[in-house]
Each structure stands twice: as C-alpha cells, then as structure tokens.
Amino acid sequence: MMRMTYGAAMPANARNWLAVWRRNYLAWRKVALASLLGNLADPMTNLLGLGFGLGLIVGRVNGTSYIDFLVGGMVATSAMTSASFETIYATFARMHTQRTWEAMLCTQLTLGDILLGEVAWAASKALLAGTGITIVAAGLGYAAWPSMLYALPAIALTGFVFASLAMVIVSLAPSYDYFVFYQTLVLTPMVFLCGAVFPITQLPAAFQLVAALLPLEHSIELIRPAMLGRPVGSVGTHIGALCIYAVVPFLLSVALLLRRLMR
Amino acid sequence: MSSVAIDLAAVNKSYRGKVVVNGVTFTVAAGECFGLLGPNGAGKSTIVRMILGMVPPDAGKITVLGKQVPAHARLARAGVGVVPQFDNLENEFTVRENLLVFGRYFSMSAREIEAVIPSLLEFARLGSKADARVAELSGGMKRRLVLARALINDPQLLVMDEPTTGLDPHARHLIWERLRSLLARGKTILLTTHFMEEAERLCDRLCVLEEGRKIAEGEPHTLINEQIGCDVMEIYGGNPHESIELIRPYAQRIEQSGETIFCYAPDLDQVRKQLRGRAGLRLLERPANLEDVFLRLTGREIEI
User: Fold this and answer.
1) Do A108 and B105 touch (CB under 8 A)?
2) Contact in structure between B33 and B198 (CB atoms under 8 Å)
3) How many CB atoms lie within 10 A of CB B122?
4) Looking at this predicted complex, what is its ipTM?
5) Domain boundaries, chain A
6) Which of A61, A158, A253, B262 is the right S-S partner for A69, CB 3.0 to 4.6 Å?
7) Which ranges carry the ABC transporter domain (chain B) (predicted)?
8) Considering just the CA atoms, what is the radius of gyration of chain A in Å?
9) pLDDT digits (tens), chain B, 304 positions
10) Cβ contacts of B84 on chain A, cutoff 8 Å
C-alpha cells in the first residue's frame, strides 16, 4: 500500500504560501469595506455596550475602569472570532463548494502551502480586526499609547492559533452544520472562562486551572496589560503556549486533510 | 528530454474494497495525444488523479515527466497543465485576474505572468474579455479560460479530464481546434473522454477502459479495423427478432443494444435488400467507429 507521505504534503518552501494569501487578499479587496464594517461592528458594540452599561454597575476592576479592563478582552476575542470564522466558513467554502483548493492542488503548491496561506490569511484578518478595535479604543482614550503597540504581535499570534484550531475543525467537519457546535461549545465558553469580560479570579479554583490551559487566556494575558500600559508577566510562557497552539493543530490539520482530500 | 511523458505500470486502486483501477499499464510518448476512453465509472478520473499525485495508488508505479509520482508529484506538476472535469475558476475575478492568481501558484513573478497573458488570451480567443468577470462568460468561454490557465506555466504535458463535456457542438469544435494547435506545437496531451468522436478526432492512441481494466489499446483506426473491419448498419423499429433472422446469413456480426440492432457486414446492400419493404424500419448506414469497438469488446454501449 502506497501512502501519500506527510513530508511531501508539508509546505514546500518559505514563500509558496504567499500566492494563496494573495489570492485571498485579492478576493477580500473587492468586498473590503463591507468586510471591515462587519468585522468591527460586533466587537465595538460589545465593548461600548458592556463597557458603558455594565461599567456603571461594576465600578472599578483590578484597579482600572471596567471599560479599560474590557478593551484587552474584546481585542483578543475579536481576533479569536475573526480568525475562527474566516477559517470555518470562508476557508471551508474554498475547500468544498468553490473548488479553489482543487485548482491550487493542480499546481506546484502542496497541501501544506495551501493551509499555511489560509492560516496566515485568517491571522491577517484577525490582526486587522484587533488593530481596528485598538485604534478606535485608543481614539476614545481607553487604550494606553504607545504600549498598545506591543499588543499587535500578540493579536497576530492569536489569529494564527485560532486559524490553526479552526482548520482542524474544517478537516473533520462533513458540512457547515457542524461549525455551530465549535462556536457554541468551544469558542463562546472560552470567552467567559478566559477572563475576557470579567477577571478570572471570579471563577472557582478548578475553572481557573482549566482557563490556564486555554489559548485565549494566554492571548488576554499578553494583550490586556499592553492595552492598560502595565508590565506583562510570564511573557515567555504565554508566547510559548500560543506557539504550541498554533503549530500542533496546524500539523494535525495537514495530516487530517491529506487523508480527507487525497486518498 | 525523455521521449516518455507518462508511464503507468500495473497500477491498482480500490476504495472501500471496490476495485476502481485494476492493473492498468500504459505509456504516453512525448508529443502524442493519448486518450482514456470509457463510460463513467470506468476509472478514468481516478487514473488522472493518480497521475497528478492527488491519489496514491495501492500498487504499481507511476512516472510523469521523469518524476516518480506521488513521491515527487510537486516537481512533476510544475511541468503539467491541468484542465479539470469541473470548472474551478474564480467566479468573482476577471479573466486576467484568474490568470494572474494561477501564475503565482507556479511561483511566477508578476512580470513573467503579464508577459504571457496576451498570448494566452489570444490563444483562448478571449482577447476582448480580459477584464470581464468569469461569472459573465459563456460555458465555452469558461472552458477556454480553463485551458488558457492550464498553459500559464508553459507545460510540456496537458492533462484534461473530460475537456468538452457539457459544451455545445460549436464550442466543442473550437476546443478541439485549439487542442490540435497545441499538439502541432509539440505539447503532449492526456485526455479522458466518453465521447467516441472526440477520441477519434484528437487521439493518436487511446486506451479503452471498462470497470477499471484496460480492454484495448492502440490507434483509433487500427482498433476499428482490427475489431470491426467493415461498415455498419443501425436498424431501428420493427420486430428486432424478425429482422435479425432475416439478415443473419449476410452479417459478419450482429449486436443488439436496447431496441437498436447493429449489423456489421462486408456487403450492406445485401442486408438492405433483405429488409426492403418491411414496415416501420429505419436504416442508417455508416462507417464503423470507436463506439462499435466498445460495443464489440464489452457487449454494451457506452452509457453516459
């Protein structure tokens, strides 16, 4: 029995993925304005609605106003949802209904090149969404300048993480119908477990332990202090955890999609 | 440059216990047009996908442009242009953008791509449509764009899965004419088809497949002469059993498919005489073709 080797399916070189990224960029450019508004509207509504509404009730949190506290959580969450949704919906369509990958696989691109291009693209959209909110929040005086610039690489890394994780879901899901489970059973609980909208110390101890294992927690631990102009603790741990969450699911999705698409 | 473009040796493929490609062996020489002919489900598309390295064979050996496939499929594909069975163009992109994006997949620079686009558009007769969105093109135009796209990397070998399926006759003839001009330029073409006419017109050699097995291989006219070797009369209507009894003494061979009788005879005038005056019969005399070869070899017509 001859097998497609995993090695041959991995990214072939350091620049092939860029052709895939640029294809997606060209497609996005045609709908950029609508896409930007769509990506920013939801997190901005959450930020301002919760920030002003709840902020009045809860008062100060961890030594700052609630809305200042919330900014970092909303930026990380929007990077998460932006990368996840781009991957489970748009990428799945390119693999499935639009046959975009089928055309790509007829060229000298490998499956790994395609996946890397897709993940990098979804991370780019996450960076764009996170940066957009950061800029608006800074304009309103809710983010510290210039330390918020340190959040940008963390936002991009968050995008990579959730694009890779969503790629595993894409490689397993038979149809769109399954994505809602990922959204409701994984992504939404993570928002509440990882301290996006309230401090993690409000949770029972067991939940705090779980949260420490989740990627969004590490994103928020990097992004929130940058937004508040505070020093970041355990930078290496957070970046390391996020890198593992970016790389391992990526490799897993290459293996899974190889079995799904090329057998 | 090797004189062999594709070499398949004893290739097998099964899905869930069902054998779809069964010990298929053939060689495509550089510069020839080679056809894989057979009904749907004969294994044509699976063979194409194995040649492109998208499906690993269970057993056997595949070499494409001197590279082992699937192990070195990426290197092989760098010299191959593919026309897939179903259009997978970028519908929201213009014709030019489709070519640009696809050229990048082959690591071509923007300058290299811009340099070849005008000749590709001219070749595909799409010069006036360069800035039209794909969604605005007719079926024939889309197919020609897929062909132009497959040529962007100046491939030595073109692999085409059902290149004219779903096209009207005019569009089909235009594609055939374009393919002949590619052959004249020295390109190698592997095509799959269930159109006997397409195979007969284009292919230097072909391989007839049924249920994953190769049942014949050769030049179209040699196959027709060897397997049939005379003209054919198709007989419609009337009582088939009566008709067959009447013509049997004069026929070299008779095949029945549904309500149609195929009579192969060296002297069809004799056959015609026997049936003269019979009510409700319609007779069609024609030279033998690959359809007859397929019928002879399998006992049935090609079902699409």
Assistant:
1) yes
2) no
3) 11
4) 0.92
5) 11-261
6) A61
7) 6-236
8) 19
9) 579 999 999 999 999 999 999 999 999 999 999 999 988 889 999 999 999 999 999 999 999 999 999 999 999 999 999 999 888 999 999 999 999 999 999 999 999 999 999 999 999 999 999 999 999 999 999 999 999 999 999 999 999 999 998 889 999 999 999 999 999 999 999 999 988 889 999 999 999 999 999 999 999 999 999 999 999 999 998 888 889 999 999 999 898 888 889 999 999 999 999 888 888 899 999 999 998 898 888 876 655 4
10) 102-103, 106
